[in-house]
Specification:
Number of helices: 17
Order of helices and strands: HHHHHHHHHEHEHHHEHEHEHHEEEE
Shape: globular
Number of strands: 9
């Protein structure tokens, strides 16, 4: 390995030391500073970063002894210098300001190494008469964007080429709707609302008891068939969710099982389904409490494996981390803006649940975007806003009393009040209360 390539052993060690001493807060700063595995020049530092990522992704402590134990299990402890090497690493202590400085230094050295690599390749192309000035300038320009962002900036030319390729697939018959987005669990939504698209912030809002959390779980369970889904929940702990996933797919009420009202066949069916739930590619985090926790967790996960989608249940349950002189609305505005930025950066749809204000019930009407509780910037940041609303009467004119606990099915209108690229629309749904499942309404 050439000693001439730019790097800072001290900077790399300080970043890793701060994470081992301070845990998630320093890890969050490193992620925000666009530090990833490639930023570390020394092999032992890259291996240690990978181990830290694995610990964080699996919700394990980011501290020396836990990390050492995990590295030992993986047979990689000696590769990072063993226990003495880790202990020596933590001797480097720095302040927050110093950490930010070293993050910038390590990132800049990484960019310079990449520039060196590009220049070497371009020099070889020039000598072989296989490159020219314009391709050279373009490649260097694309590389320099790494100094300002974690990913290459897409150009208008790139977007045009992608659109041409898409049209070509339409012409040759290989195009499907899924090429432009992810389908919802209900065909009627896809037809009337359009598919969920990468980079979209989707707001799903309702009053309590209308099924928004159930709707979110069904979306996550459907999307995880295409890739891993991250589900952040402050509404319900993981332990309560497993049986809810099982009852949605089996149609068997977990409450009935607990009350002894189910047959042995139903119980065995439910147990088999729980076995399938164990393997669902859904990562559920119920301990994260703040915006920074969510963003850090998602970005760290994406460095290991890009998720298919992110769901957050729900906005008002998370600590908005108000800054001095800031109202809660302003803080929530930062939250929604960060969720939109996260969707764009990772190129995944982000579903953010939000509570509706009581004026909808008080005035007995359909919800409007202005009814979003502590709405902050929700209206402007969202690409879609979907409301779930239960009217007093079903389409057939029959009145439904929501306070009637014996009423199994509730008719619900799913209303897309905003669709940046797909317009507005509505779908009739039925909410099956005993199994907390939202289904398409089939008129008699």
């Amino acid at each position: 390995m050439s000693a001439d390539l730019p790097h800072s052993e001290e900077g790399e060690r300080i970043i890793l030391s701060c994470i081992l001493l301070d845990g998630p807060p320093s890890f969050a700063k490193a992620i925000d500073g666009r530090i990833d595995e490639g930023c570390f020049y020394l092999p032992q530092h890259r291996k240690l970063w990978r181990a830290i990522q694995w610990q964080h992704k699996n919700n394990h402590p980011l501290e020396l002894h836990a990390l050492a134990e995990e590295l030992k299990k993986m047979g990689k402890l000696d590769e990072v210098g063993g226990i003495p090497g880790l202990v020596e690493m933590t001797q480097l202590v720095c302040t927050t300001a110093q950490l930010n400085h070293w993050i910038d230094v390590v990132r800049q050295h990484y960019v310079m190494r990449e520039l060196h690599s590009t220049c070497t390749r371009m020099a070889e192309k020039t000598l072989a008469h296989s490159g020219g000035v314009e391709p050279f300038v373009l490649e260097v320009n694309n590389l320099l964007t790494k100094h300002h962002a974690g990913t290459k900036q897409v150009t208008l030319a790139d977007a045009s080429d992608e659109a041409i390729a898409l049209i070509g697939r339409i012409q040759d018959g290989t195009y499907t709707d899924k090429d432009t987005g992810i389908d919802f669990p209900w065909p009627e939504w896809n037809r009337r609302f359009g598919l969920a698209k990468p980079g979209e912030l989707i707001i799903l809002s309702a009053r309590p008891g209308m099924g928004k959390s159930s709707c979110c779980r069904q979306i996550a369970q459907h999307w995880c068939k295409q890739g891993k889904v991250l589900l952040f929940s402050r509404e319900m702990p993981v332990k309560q969710m497993a049986p809810l996933f099982a009852q949605t797919t089996t149609g068997i009420s977990f409450r009935d099982i607990l009350a002894g009202r189910s047959t042995m066949d139903d119980i065995e069916t439910f147990k088999r389904e729980l076995g399938k739930v164990r393997a669902l590619p859904i990562e559920i985090y119920d301990q994260d409490r703040t915006l920074s926790h969510i963003v850090t967790r998602a970005k760290a996960f994406a460095q290991v494996s890009k998720p298919k989608a992110i769901c957050v249940d729900y906005l008002q349950r998370y600590d908005a981390q108000q800054e001095r002189g800031e109202t809660r609305d302003m803080a929530l505005g930062r939250f929604t803006m960060a969720m939109k930025d996260l969707a764009i950066e990772l190129q995944v749809p982000v579903v953010l649940l939000a509570q509706l204000g009581r004026s909808v019930e008080r005035e007995n009407r359909e919800p409007r975007m202005s009814d979003l509780l502590e709405s902050g910037n929700l209206e402007q940041d969202a690409d879609r806003i979907i409301f779930l609303n239960a009217p007093d009467h079903r389409p057939d004119g029959v009145m439904q009393q929501l306070t009637d606990n014996d009423l199994r099915f509730i008719y619900v209108d799913a209303i897309q009040a905003k669709g940046r690229s797909d317009g507005t629309g509505r779908c009739g749904m039925m909410f099956d209360r005993p199994i907390t499942k939202l289904m398409s309404h089939q008129p008699a």
